[in-house]
Amino acid sequence: MQDKLRRLPGVDKLLAMIGQDREVGGLPHQLVVGALRQVVEDARRRLMANQDTSVSPEALTASAKDILVHATRPSFIKVVNAAGVALHTNLGRAPLSARARARLADIISGYSTLEYNLATGERGTRYFHVTQKICQLTGAEDALAVNNNAAAILLALSALTEGREVIVSRGQLVEIGGSFRVPDVLQQSGAKLVEVGTTNKTHLGDYAAAIGPNTAAILKVHTSNYRIIGFTAQPEDAALVKLAHEHGLPVIDDLGSGTLIPVNRGGWREPTAAERLAAGTDIVTFSGDKLLGSSQAGIIAGKKQYLEKMRAHPLLRAIRIDKLSLAALEGTLLDYLVGEPRQDVPIQRMLNMSEAELTAKAGLLAEQLGGLKVNGWQVKIAPVASQAGGGALPGIDLPSYGVSVSCRGKTAAKLERELRQRPLPIIARIIDDWVVFDVRCLAPEDMAEIKVACMAIAAGREP
Ligand SMILES: *Cc1c(COP(=O)(O)O)cnc(C)c1O
What we know:
By secondary structure, the chain is an alpha/beta fold. It has a 7-stranded mixed β-sheet, sandwiched between helices. It has a 5-stranded mixed β-sheet with strand order 2-16-17-20-19. It has a two-stranded parallel ribbon with strand order 1-18. Helix 6 packs parallel to helix 14, helix 7 (149-161) packs across helix 8 (182-189) and helix 7 (149-161) packs across helix 12 (304-311). It has 19 helices and 20 strands. The longest helix is centred in the N-terminal third of the chain and has 20 residues, at 29-48. Residues 148-150, 174, 176, 180, 221-222, 224, 254, 256-257, 287, 298, 391 line the site of pyridoxal-5'-phosphate.
């Protein structure tokens, strides 16, 4: 060990070596020296701990190169979603429509009317670009868009409840993930939670009994990631609204995913934001990047008297929507207003895909991969179940088709990993020792990429 410690090369020597490297030799001096110091230090520490490690200059510069390549390459990159989860939160939820992408590209290329009123030449508001469009699509009197739906609920509760009580059914005390829990959000807003009913059943009378002089609002929360089935009850929207209004209280409904057009899949019917508002709900909030199919945003729509309080609340500034999201959101809202949302908005197209379309896509992909069979691969079409994901259509399987592949001499886990580690990563599922590409979320260029990737893996080429 002492001998090895003595042979540990100095950073200067390694620097001269790595300087010759085509890929990382030209990187800023500071970065390169930092990486070299790190590998020398790591090697020293391992030697001191009596662990075996190479101290050859070649091995050390190779490790430093690895560090540099990873540190200077973007890690936030595009992937192919062959997992069949349409609103995959980890894969960025909704892909944008052509119109949303065009709006985004236009806005980010220079300056814009973000908060500028062209008619008067004076300051305008960023909300102007979406408020009227949301109102037209939902029938609301007024609307706002903020950073995301979590922020939308926080704002609604903070502005409308002012530290007073908010009544919530025990069946709707949801945890969405990423530590968004309804009781915590209520607490953060300063409101006091009053739980009513039981996990499975909450009656109108439970709400009525909880209303007191200190009540500020009734909050409903979409049970986005679970379903309570069996012996269950929740009052109808109209009855709950009537009760609230008799006491001068607003009903705030966190729709979670929300939807602008009816969704009716696998026995699950998701009411639209417009239906909720038409039933008298005072405020609805929902996400921009779930079923709406746009950028990350939180939509707040409802009665003007309440929206005005939110506009005046200081929290609005802290959670305001940024111009990139706003550009995409306006484009998507236009898809719903003047386009064909079931065709134009990718997430809608994916969820509404017919059996015939799915089998045709699977047939095409299987054909493209057919050439692999000479390399000892097996390729077959198999029925699979996709999911909407993102807290939409909880627990509902969407019948879909996948192309399953297996490759002689390689486990499914290894193949799945190699696909995932491609320059354009392909995210697939493993079912019964097969790697499965669910075709629901694949664009034509994704299928071509899957073919390229499989061919490269079959030929044993490094990415
Ligand atoms: C997804 C979801 C949220 C959070 O929405 P984000 O836009 O991700 O902030 C809040 N409430 C419900 C019921 C949800 O499903």
